[in-house]
């Protein structure tokens, strides 16, 4: 998929996954998780205080829930974004497209 985007749009695509549960998803777990999806996928984690504002900025809903018979469950929105960043710009000059 990335190759198609690069060829058709003439832009580099860098896929990024950010966990909404850093208490469970440490660096090693995120690293193993992203390997299952795509070799170029970058996985990010941090503290709850670091990930909360990122989720808020991208309007991502998430909440830990208790469900009978389940060891673990996090309810969350499923959204993909395309950030359009000019090579000469920093992140302050991004355009955001929600798909």
From TrEMBL:
Q: Which GO terms describe its biological process?
A: mitochondrial respiratory chain complex IV assembly
List positions binding Cu cation. Answer: 76
Record's keyword terms, sorted? Copper, Metal-binding
- Give the domain of life: Eukaryota
Please provide one cellular component term from the Gene Ontology annotations of this protein: mitochondrion
Molecular function GO terms recorded: metal ion binding
Q: Which Gene3D superfamilies match?
A: Glutaredoxin
Family classification: Belongs to the SCO1/2 family.
Protein name per the record: (wild Malaysian banana) hypothetical protein
Organism the protein comes from: Musa acuminata subsp. malaccensis (Wild banana)
